[in-house]
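Tutorial, part two.
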Amino acid sequence: MTLISKIEDRTALIGIIGLGYVGTPLALRFSECGFGVLGFDVNAPRVDGFNNGISPIGHIPDTQIAAMRQRGFEATTDYARAAEPDVLIICVPTPLGVHREPDMSFVTNTIAAAAPYLRAGQVMSLESTVFPGATEETIAPVIRAAGLEIGRDYHLVFSPEREDPGNAGFSTATIPKVVGGMTPDCLAVGEALYSAVVDQIVPVSSTQVAEMVKLLENIYRSVNIGLVNEMKVLADRMGVDIFEIIKAAATKPFGFTPFYPGPGVGGHCIPIDPFYLTWKAREYGLHTRFIELAGEINASMPGYVVDRLFRALNERSVSIRGAKILVLGIAYKPDIGDPRESPSVLVMEQLRDLGAVLSYSDPHVPHFPQMRAHAFDLSSVPLTPEVLSAQDAVVLLTAHRDFDYAMIGAHAPLIIDTRGKFARGGGVVSA
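Running the prediction step on this input gives:
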């Protein structure tokens, strides 16, 4: 039986490597569509949680994981089992190194762990965001070294993830899926694989094109956010409301897409992905000035927020050293519990370095998590009139829907508003 036939009749076993914000929804979708799914992760407690029906992600309930378990899903840390699946989909992180160079170690370590167990008749799909050419440069040689011919014995595709955690309007099934293959036969297998679980497939001519698609999507966002952040700083200087300006501009039915300012950019995509391309561009003798400038503007916004707070406290004759500052929201976007690359954390670090007494409130992040580069021994505090009125300032960084903005506005003595949730004037300062 051919691999495509096994996919079409749902007898193919799907292996998902990396059970995080990308891999978990993908595993759920394949399981819901009748496939057997085997999950791989190096995090043993996370694997144990999956096997006990516990979700590692706040917006995915335990009931969905438990139901997937009942349908036969299993999680493991044992990469020797990589020979079992017919499909291996890699969904591991691709962060930046200390010098903003791509850190491909999660991908390369994954491939190295699976390499001894690769076999003919499999397809491997990389979904992690990488630089253009990475699939061909880092994965294809390992497959060939195993004695497998790509396009005949083994199939290799790149299909970038397009998850938007917390967005109820889109799901794994409804977000169009870009797929590029190393060969035409690889692409055919990739199309068959993803068309089994996704409504619309967008085939492209190569893995390199598919890799570039993902980077363009997030660079587009980064550049436009950088633009509107720069305009926000100017609007604050001029004493006008950038959110009112954007709202009015968005009434134009053509030629304008609204983007909104904030304290910076966060998550696993926008702060990271553009630099995968700028790094690769240097190999071709190009300096991507426009992309890097947007990154610089966005990276400056946490400092801008702290400066606005510093000045607002100074006007009230309050020193920032020893000031009680309550941060509202540490997740990188509203209504989820993911603080990865969150600008809130960068604001908090700057305030801590200045001697502020910090606390935070975030209904989606009850305890400050362990992070590679950031550490706070803090837990979320409840939002009450007493807590708010005891602060010297409250800084709104992530606009969760769960926040009672009327109550916050009524009791906080000073609000630094980075999200346009409060009317300007009085004790409200735009930042």
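Residues 227-430 form a domain with the Rossmann fold fold (CATH 3.40.50.720). In part three we will examine how such features are distributed along the chain.
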